[in-house]
Amino acid sequence: MRETLLHHTQETMQELTELSKKIEAN
User: Fold this and answer.
1) What was the pLDDT predicted at 22?
2) How far is CA 21 from each of CA 3, 9, 11, 14, 26, rounded to the nearest angstrom?
3) Using alpha carbons only, how large is the chain's radius of gyration in Å?
4) Between vectors from CA 1 to CA 8 and to CA 18, what angle results, nearest 5°?
5) DSSP label of 1
6) What's the pLDDT score for residue 7?
7) What pLDDT score does 11 carry?
8) What's the first-to-final CA gap in the chain, in angstroms?
């Protein structure tokens, strides 16, 4: 369970990073 939660958190952080990059590009 803890590993799954950690993996989910990493995926969310990656999505947020990509999202912020798109915002900065605009």
Assistant:
1) 96
2) 27, 18, 15, 11, 9
3) 12
4) 5
5) -
6) 92
7) 97
8) 38
Print burial letters for 3-19: b (CB count within 10 Å at least 16), e (below 16).
Answer: eeeeeeeeeeeeeeeee
Residue whose pair of structure tokens reads 């803890």 in the numeric block: 2
Amino acid 2: pLDDT? 81
**H/E element, 17:** helix 2-25
Per-residue pLDDT reduced to its tens digit, 1-22? 688 999 999 999 999 999 999 9
- Taking the C-alpha atoms of residue 19 and residue 13, their distance in angstroms, rounded to an integer, is 10
Residue type, 2: R
Q: What distance in Å separates the CA atoms of residue 14 and residue 11, rounded to the nearest whole number?
A: 5
